[in-house]
């Protein structure tokens, strides 16, 4: 039996799998199939897009990010697909964003492309976030429903990795419930490391997304969040299981990891449990970062542990959503502006020291959402008041992520008000966003990276005309524009010579950096 996996990339509130981030879904499915004695083929949506089409990434005037991430299997795409018995499509974006060097595929796109390969006789499976409650590639809209894809796929199933054995044994007639998913994950996750030879690019440029827990510690979910639709409460993986997975990944050549697939890293467990995890994973890491953090649970002890074991440039991305007390109440956010401020201050006080790679050890990030229930003109005034206070008090925010909410069927927001506030206030959004970018983001960047600061370990990712754009390997790396076409997939250092609204202008300096050959955890 021949099985192919097509990775259209995934982006969720808890979990990122858009290249160069390698998500959990393809690795878990790959590992589950290996455990069953089947060695699958891995393809990206870029492979499918590029089939039967000549392309030249290096000489494009502007790098085509839809074709940037082809795999070593690319020359054989047609042969692989036509000879496959089963084709598994992984897709779904729940938290849409802008991606520097990749472009997620939608189910609409992949269906259209696959028809060119005459796959009508194949058994087609859709999994990933698209198979749960749909997907939305753009904010401010209703998500595409699962039902709209049922005409093409023979099976639409979330968490396919846990069902594969029963499905194959029953010829896809029976879906067996798994009593303990994390017990099964203990076996399949290390096997998934063997996907390495089929991934695009040098493995040193990838960052592996690691799952630590499922569920949310908040008893009442936020109005827009899908976690409230999931059953089973909060469950965390044992530190030893995650460390075993990282050890297996490292043996295949992976060195960069992100503890990102969770609702809040501070909710993973007590400080001792968190330290066991961090100390174990850091032994196999050149880069170790985190993602999600709920300001409700930020504390000094866990922050010190994160700064101790993680790499500089780390970002604790906090789902603040709004500083407006009315919006906070109406959407069950269960925070307050004062609580968020204290979380920002705690992380700054402990993580503000600069590391060897040029970035502070760990800084907070803030997510803001437009279109929530109760939003009004004064909501922006409240947001700006508290953002200015953070800046005026000498604190730093690594990034402010501003999105329009995606409406998912079944969430409280979708059922109670839908797009009422999106329609009512959308005419203000550009002005509100621009105010934050010009008056907070730009001066904040100047504070974080003063002129002359050397930022080390930048991977050159795309060209745009005569400019090369590069980023460090990490959780929320800054984009650096460097004059000239200096070669892609290089590792360079750059001195800061200018600031844009959300990025910096750099000038390549010196020989290739040596920071990654040293300990990236050392602070200056």
What is the compact description of this entry?
Helices cover about 30% and strands about 20% of the residues.
Structure description:
This protein is α/β, with parallel strands linked by helices and 524 residues long. It has three domains: 3-182, Rossmann fold; 216-448, tm_1862 like domain (pyruvate-formate lyase- activating enzyme); 454-517, Beta Barrel (OB fold (Dihydrolipoamide Acetyltransferase, E2P)), CATH 2.40.50.140. The protein contains 15 helices and 21 strands. Strands 1, 2, 4, 5, 6 and 7 form a six-stranded mixed sheet that branches. The model is unreliable at 513-519 (pLDDT under 50).
Task: Compute the number of structural domains.
Answer: 3
The CATH topology of the largest domain: pyruvate-formate lyase- activating enzyme
Which structural class best describes the helix and strand composition? alpha/beta
Low-confidence stretches: 513-519
CATH architecture of the largest domain: Alpha-Beta Horseshoe
Q: Specify Rg, calculated over alpha carbons.
A: 22 Å
Task: Give the beta-strand count.
Answer: 21
């Amino acid at each position: 039996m021949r099985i192919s996996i097509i990775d259209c990339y995934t982006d969720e509130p808890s979990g990122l799998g858009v290249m160069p981030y390698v998500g959990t879904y393809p690795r878990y499915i790959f590992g589950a199939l290996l455990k069953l004695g089947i060695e699958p083929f891995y393809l990206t949506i870029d492979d499918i897009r590029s089939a039967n089409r000549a392309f030249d990434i290096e000489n494009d005037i502007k790098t085509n990010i839809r074709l940037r991430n082809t795999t070593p299997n690319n020359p054989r795409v047609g042969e692989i697909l036509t000879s496959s018995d089963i084709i598994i499509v992984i897709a779904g974006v729940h938290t849409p964003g802008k991606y520097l060097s990749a472009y997620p595929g939608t189910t609409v796109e992949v269906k259209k492309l696959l028809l060119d390969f005459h796959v009508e006789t194949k058994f087609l499976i859709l999994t990933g976030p698209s198979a749960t409650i749909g997907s939305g590639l753009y904010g401010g809209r209703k998500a595409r429903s699962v039902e709209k894809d049922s005409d093409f796929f023979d099976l639409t199933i979330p968490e396919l990795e846990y069902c594969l054995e029963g499905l194959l044994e029953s010829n896809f007639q029976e879906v067996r419930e798994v009593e303990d998913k994390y017990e099964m994950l203990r076996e399949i996750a290390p096997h998934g490391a063997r996907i390495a030879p089929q991934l695009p690019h040098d493995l040193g440029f990838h960052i592996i997304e690691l799952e630590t827990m499922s569920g949310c510690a908040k008893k009442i979910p936020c109005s827009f969040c899908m976690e409230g639709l999931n059953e089973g409460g909060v469950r965390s993986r044992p530190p030893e299981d995650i460390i075993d997975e990282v050890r297996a990944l490292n043996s295949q050549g992976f060195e960069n990891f992100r503890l990102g697939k969770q609702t809040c890293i501070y909710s993973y467990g007590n400080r001792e449990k968190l330290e066991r995890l961090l100390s174990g994973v850091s032994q196999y890491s050149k880069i170790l970062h985190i993602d999600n953090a709920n300001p409700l649970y930020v504390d000094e002890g866990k922050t010190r542990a994160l700064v101790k074991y993680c790499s500089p440039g780390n970002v604790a991305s906090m789902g603040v959503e709004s500083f407006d007390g009315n919006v906070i109440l109406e959407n069950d956010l269960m925070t307050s502006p004062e609580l968020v401020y204290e979380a920002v201050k705690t992380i700054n006080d402990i993580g503000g020291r600069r590391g060897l790679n040029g970035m502070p050890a760990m800084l907070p990030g803030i997510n803001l959402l437009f279109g929530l229930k109760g939003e009004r003109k004064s909501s922006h005034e409240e947001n700006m008041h508290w953002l200015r206070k953070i800046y005026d008090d000498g604190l730093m925010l690594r990034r402010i992520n501003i999105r329009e909410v995606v409406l998912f069927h079944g969430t409280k927001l979708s059922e109670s008000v839908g797009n009422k506030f999106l329609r009512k206030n959308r005419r203000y959004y550009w002005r509100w966003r621009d105010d934050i970018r010009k008056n907070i983001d730009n001066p904040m960047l100047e504070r974080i990276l003063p002129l002359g600061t050397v930022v080390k370990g930048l991977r050159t990712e795309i060209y745009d005309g005569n400019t090369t754009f590069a980023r460090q390997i990490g959780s929320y790396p800054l984009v650096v524009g460097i004059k000239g076409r200096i070669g892609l997939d290089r590792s360079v250092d750059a001195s800061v010579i200018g600031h844009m609204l959300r990025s910096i202008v750099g000038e390549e300096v010196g020989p290739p950096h040596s920071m990654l050959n040293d300990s990236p955890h050392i602070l200056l």
